[in-house]
Amino acid sequence: MDTEGTHGARDGQRAAPVPRPATPTAPAAPPMPRQPPGAEGPASVADWLATPRPEAAPGIWRYGYRPPEPEAETEGAGRRLVVGMVISAVLGLLFWSLWRQGNIPYQWALLKLFTPGDWWWAGSTQPKGLEGIDARIVYDGVVFGALVYTVGRLGAWPDAIRHFVVRRPQPARAVLASVAAVGALIFVWPSALGLDTRPLPVADPVFSLVALVTGDPDVFASPAVIDTLYVLITLAVLWPFARIGGWWQAVREARGATVRRPATPPRPADAPPRAHWPELRAAGQDKAADLLSAELLSGRMTDVDCARVAHAWRTAAPDPAAPHPTALATFVDTVARHGAAAWTHPSGQRDLPTRTAVHDPLVGQVRIGRFARDDRNPYAVRGAGAALDPAVLGTSLLAVGPSGAGKTGRLMRPVAESLALGALAGQCAVVVVCAAGTALGADDTYDVVVRPGDPASVHDIDLYADCADADEAAAFLAEGLVGDLEAVDTRRAATTLAQLLGPYHALHGRFPSVPVLRELLEGDPAGLTALQSGLAAGEHTAMRRELDARMRQSGSPNDPGPALADRLALLDRPAFADFFDPGGDGHPFSMRAVVHHPLRVRVDLPEHGHEEASRLLARLLLAQFTYVVRNRARRPHFACLILDDASRTLTAESVRAIQRLRSLNAGVVLGLRTIGEVPESLQGPLYAAVGCRMAFSGVTTWDGRRFTEAWGTEWIETKEVAQHTVFADQPVTRALHSLRKLVTGKAVTTDAVTVRKVERERWSASDLAHSLPPGHAVLSLATVAGGHAPPLLVDLRG
């Protein structure tokens, strides 16, 4: 019987089967996204699709990402910039004072060189008429402009403006620029405020230049000309301050129309918009591209649709230069028949009912926060969005933090949502294991919801993961039952189970239920005798030999059967009477289904009154997952298991299996309140097995020590300042030193600075325990391809 992870129905009600790959029927009215493709994204899906997503370091939110400008500041830069500004300004004022007094040698040589000689009295620079007067005024203005430019360059004024003004957030940036603009206007138009001071040579040179160019002294008789010049001069003075203060941006933000994200880098002028599907057109499929463009621009296509179609295209044409003809024809035909609804998920959903995080389905990222603007973070990532995707989840992630730190709401749920969106796009399969009532998404977000112990649960758990091999089923069943017991050898336990499961399956064509298996493990004579009698036929000789070996071992001091039976007793309770029976009328979910389908599964474990049973089921699901994903050839999509609470679920074998997942296109996300919930012998191997580690605020120093060891050290440059007392030899100097000590209360000293490189911990256990603000976490990432990001401080509220 082809079950694909489902069997029959319970209570006469037929449940929805595990989704099967099938060609869906296009809905009459496809749903629009429940929110824009990103909370900070554009209004239309076409704009969202066209937004650049440049390559970035692991963990960087790529949507609209713009690499920062190179860091220009160093320690003490502010002081040096101020000193440079002051010195250059003083030199400029001194030069201008000498210029106004006529004390600069050859001051008027250039003026007389470029002007007619009849404008001046012979042997002097005294003007004869209005032309000479206007020429001197224009000359003063040109020199003043050159002086301002020179002072700015010598004093590094542009760097200082960027350091003190441009770096500030709005509206502080605009306010500072506005204050400076008002000051400049006062010096340009002092008469407007009734001030009896000499204006800067800005307006007068413009008026004189106009008079010289026109050659008409009466040009200023027209009020329109004067008013126009006033406006132009004022705008010219204000323009640099508007650029510095970002006034246009401030106005848009004040009106609520600004896009509150880093400015997106402009696309090259010759790059076609993504809304026209250039990759399809490059392959000669203009008709399919036109159809998809029409669907997108008309609003009938969601962001998930775009991601799903793009994934289908990559699958059909891995090499766009030489696509496979059959796959290409199938792609074009499916697009022609279904349009935006092509390759819809077998559930028929094209989007999640609700989203609580910001997602980018096109690259599979979910934004979990923002890298803090902290000195401990590299300059290049400060303020950038922090994101997770299958490329980093494929190395598995370990999150440690106390209850209330935000593991579930700020990490587990966004990741579960992102993988669920990936499943709708045909790229992911996700299994979420959590306590009943945990807010990890509504039921209609998932294809299968399993509630062991709840009579209303439609689905069940297949303890044997739809296995036909007794040895394989026994291996992960033993891992789930006694993998955490140091006194029981898991391999011997697996052999014991195989000696019972194999004969039972050979006789009945299925594996036993929990009560039957428990009786066999306890050595029930009636059950073993009945099984032995059923295997009397010649074709069951090997299985009878297995059973005989088990019967001889039963009751021996090293027999793992009683321990296995004791653990099975946790599942052989009245609350689970209708569960875990392969031959019953239930509707079991098989973990093996995630290999074949992009499934979305949530398992709600009963916590109250069945804590041990819940831990056992979590261990079993983890063991099943690591076994079924080994066959990567049959699974083109990424598979992920999320354990919201992984306490007491990890074993030596499961830790080794987690390390192998990164080469199997699969990963796990583990949440722990404290690393003490993992046996001490496994703590080091666990940190080594996962590629991504996340420490939430509130961790203890004991937990922080493990993170510190995993993250290692780095070389940093330190400065040591030693103060040495100055001993004067001269009486006057000694008297001055005594007076200074009397005034300041400190002896006169000199500083000896020693700069050296030392090896320091990236994050100390004390920093992790006491320096993390609420709502923050330290996150380190690694990718399946070998990329990595050092531990960085993330603001999960950003």
TrEMBL record:
- What keyword terms does UniProt attach to this protein? Membrane, Transmembrane, Transmembrane helix
User: Compositional bias of type Basic and acidic residues: which residue ranges?
Assistant: 1-13
Query: Per the UniProt record, which residue ranges are transmembrane?
Result: 81-99, 137-154, 174-192, 220-242, 419-442
UniProt keyword annotation of Transmembrane helix present: yes
Name the residue ranges with Pro residues bias: 18-36
The lineage's top-level taxon is Bacteria
SUPFAM superfamilies for the chain: P-loop containing nucleoside triphosphate hydrolases (SSF52540)
Looking at the record, which segments are called Disordered? 1-46
Q: What is this protein called?
A: ATP/GTP-binding protein
Question: Which organism encodes this protein?
Answer: Streptomyces alboniger
Q: What is the lineage of its organism?
A: Bacteria, Bacillati, Actinomycetota, Actinomycetes, Kitasatosporales
